[in-house]
Amino acid sequence: MCIPNTLSLSLASLSEPIYLIQCFQLYLMPLIEKNSNNLIQNTMTSLKKYVAIAVLSFSFSLAYAQYEIKPVEGYTPQIGIMVDMLEDIKDRITEIVADLDQEETDYLFDDKANSIGSIIMHIAATESYYQVETLEERTWTDEEAEFWGIAGELGTESREKLKEKPVKYYLDLWNEVREKSLEGLKTRDDAWFASNIEEGINYHWVWFHVLEHSANHMGQIALIKNRLRKE
Question: What is the pTM of this model?
C-alpha cells in the first residue's frame, strides 16, 4: 500500500520514483475506471491529493537526509563528530533567537526567570571556561573572569546587568568563543580526546558536557520564546 499507515516505513523510501508509480497504479487507475461519468473532476481532485502527499513525503525524505552525524573534515574522527554536534546545536539555537527584538531578548516571564540574552551569554561563558581549561590548559584570567562571571552563574546579578543589548551581541560573543574552540580542537587528536583531564574525567566527556549544556538551554530558550508577551 503506497499510503503508509505505520511509522515503520522508511522516510527515505517515500521519495523513490516507484512510490509515485505505485500510487498511480493502485489508486488513480481504479478511480478512473470506476468513475467514468465524472472522470475529469474526480481525477483532478484525486491527482491534487496524491501529488500533495507525494510532495510532503519528498519533503520528509529531504529533511531526514539532513539528520546525519558525520565527522567534520579537518578534525580526527571522534573530535570531528563532536564538532558536528556542537555546530548543529549552535545553529538551531541561533535559528530560534535570530529574529528577536530588544524587548524579546530581555524578556523575563517572572522575577526569578532569565532572559534569552543572558542564557546565550551563559552558554558562551560555559564553553569559554572549558575551552581554556582543556585547550589552553589554564584558567580564566582576572579580566576574563570578571567579564564572563556575570553569566557564569545566572541569577540576580545577571538579571540586572545583562540587558539592553541586542541578541546579535550575545550571538557574536558565542561566535568568537566557538571560533577559538574549533581552532583548538583542530590541533588535537582522538588519543588526546580519550585521555583523562583528571581521574574519572576525560576530555571527551568535558566536550560532551558543553554539548548537553547547550541542548538543555535550547529547551529553556524555546519555552521562554513561547511565553513572550503577545501584542
Answer: 0.71
